[in-house]
Amino acid sequence: MATTTSSVTDICLAAQEASRQLAATDSATKDRALHAIADALVARTPEILEANGRDMDAGRENGLDAALLDRLLLDADRVAAIAAQVRDIAALPDPVGEVIDGKRLPNGLDVKKVRVPLGVVAVVYEARPNVTIDAAALCLKSGNAIVLRGSSSAAHSNAVLAGIAAQAAEEAGLPAGTIGLVAGGGREELAELATQTGIVDLIIPRGGEGLKNALKGVATVPVIYAASGNCHVFVDASADVATAVEIVLNAKTQRPGVCNAAETLLVHADAAPAVLPAALGALRDAGVELRVDGRTRALAGADLAAGLLDAGEEDWDTEFLALTLAVGVVDSVDEAIAHVNRHGSGHSEAIVTNDAAAARAFELGVDAACVYVNASTRFTDGGEFGMGAEIGNSTQKLHARGPIGLRELCAFKYVVTGDGHVRG
Amino acid sequence: MATTTSSVTDICLAAQEASRQLAATDSATKDRALHAIADALVARTPEILEANGRDMDAGRENGLDAALLDRLLLDADRVAAIAAQVRDIAALPDPVGEVIDGKRLPNGLDVKKVRVPLGVVAVVYEARPNVTIDAAALCLKSGNAIVLRGSSSAAHSNAVLAGIAAQAAEEAGLPAGTIGLVAGGGREELAELATQTGIVDLIIPRGGEGLKNALKGVATVPVIYAASGNCHVFVDASADVATAVEIVLNAKTQRPGVCNAAETLLVHADAAPAVLPAALGALRDAGVELRVDGRTRALAGADLAAGLLDAGEEDWDTEFLALTLAVGVVDSVDEAIAHVNRHGSGHSEAIVTNDAAAARAFELGVDAACVYVNASTRFTDGGEFGMGAEIGNSTQKLHARGPIGLRELCAFKYVVTGDGHVRG
What we know:
The structure is a homodimer of 424-residue chains.
Chain A: H1 8-22, H2 27-43, H3 45-61, H4 66-72, H5 76-90, E1 99-104, E2 110-117, E3 120-125, H6 130-141, E4 145-149, H7 155-171, E5 179-181, H8 187-193, E6 202-206, H9 209-218, E7 231-235, H10 241-253, E8 262-268, H11 272-285, E9 289-292, H12 294-300, H13 302-305, E10 309-310, E11 324-330, H14 333-343, E12 348-352, H15 356-365, E13 370-375, E14 393-394, E15 402-403, E16 410-421
Parallel strand pairs in A: 3-4, 3-6, 4-5, 7-8, 7-12, 8-11, 9-10, 9-11, 12-13
Antiparallel strand pairs in A: 1-2, 2-16, 14-15
């Protein structure tokens, strides 16, 4: 069972103990445990829904809004989807043991750089109880023990989900302590978890800015902060107008509330007379609020001008996460690159162009996790990239950049083999 | 010239500006700049020695001890060696632009994972002025701008060295700001440097625990802390006695003051009667102080027993960095692994064995940057590993583990190319 009543430190120590064994556990055993978890989730759906019902009741009493209640809600279909995701993760290749690099040194020593689990990964998250299982499955597959810390609003759901998963994993042969859940959802538990130096190897927050800021203030163990995305689409002088309009529309409107949606459109001055009326018209028709600079307004045409708002300086730095787009005209690829590097958050940046030199300049010059040439920013996603799944998306440069999949949940070690080699 | 009189923030901003250009600078240009730096160092040796003389005078006045003065000292040979090291770094393969991974997704998008510079790397260091040039050359080769912050005891030497390097780099076509030096060596400058979030991408401290602790208290930008090394040699039941003695002797005595030297010898009980007298005798003859557990003492033989000290609990956790070794007997490979994981610092750990199963268990079970089978721990080194050079050695698990060479001074980005792809 998940050790939901132990202290944070006890849970972390148990996870560390388990992690030593997990690092040497073969893929077949881990996959069996994942399938056992999926089976148990389906078989014990009534328990899960009963616990979730208690969280939903409390949420309604506490006045949670409809969106939060929907995130909290589980039903049989959602539980089945969670179980299916666990089976999908089981089917992914095991990253542990991959030989990343290897060679024989001139002195005959064999050096292998081998992927290994990080050890103990803590995941702190908010209202969605499905994260309990998604995160546990990703960590287990990558050979890590996991310590979960959800929010108090989902406490009953999380406790039952983690308990089912921990029991199934243990019965399938994994060490006790593989999946631990911190019972309290308060700031004290967060601080205790975030200061387990030498025990917890990584903390991943999955939640809003409040959660990230709470961690920033206290964490002494490494944290990978999931990204905010102030993403741009730059339409170059040579761009095909129809392609440009389609990409901008997709990047802005296909799912505006996510971090890889575009927030600013930049158009090369030479393309602007053709591109802007078409793009702005399509965006307006899709219900997008347009905040534009003076040059954009001048080129938009009388038909559109009335509906445009003037962009303020802060609009270039804003992640709207809504049907709002800042639009500006630039005179060159270099100006576009400079704008992106100044205002972007290093997430996903796109150029639409038919000019090979412009594409190359943008690829080299833009400092971001993902740089797109003639494609929508919306593809930045572990699933889309063929990683199978992701636990978040990093805009930091160390360790993991872009989607955090199974490999990014790993470290490596050097294994060096000789036959009595000593250093001269 | 190095901007030695600007504020820390100005230097960092200039470095960031330079880093944008450096990321797109080809290898030939960077290598030309490195050779220009080496040439200038040799040509301007008198200036360097004059400045170093002033630091040496001040050091003597301030009562620096002989070891510190020796670290501070430059002469024509040492300057020539520094210049030669720069040429060696120029000759290494450029890590920037390496395609780490790549594939075509089912939808036809091409995804390439490409190595790119981190951006701005700050290196904070102590008395050795040669670090000024070593660190600058490694960062320049890997396409990073560098901000250096040395100690006040080497201020004149560092200013001249950084000035020569910055001027040579700029004259060779690299952007101004590529090599910056923070003038003050005080804690205030350190704190200002360590909080340049969004400007400085990484800080690497090269120095003692005092420097690391000073950083830990203030840093908000990512830091890779160089390692302490509490390294072990475990002699398994099946080990060849002569091989075991040779490896232990090398790991302990070849250079006892460094982080990859062994600090504890563990011997399997089955091998102890043969190994201990031979190993302890050789170690004693090499002048090593031996702190042993009771079982070791009992097996050492009357000849050796008188010279042995009793190990205290703290000895298993101590990085002696001297001719001192803790010695214990264990009953199994698993006990050795558990001891290493409990007391080691995750640096370099060796097993001496002829048993394939024991070697495999140790490789899988020991959680360290470098795990050795039948080789001395002393090989953990960027040069030995064929990385050409290193800027430090990491015992952390995220991003860089083990030697930090040119590749470890890089991040990566995904470059995604389509022909109008949008997400459905």
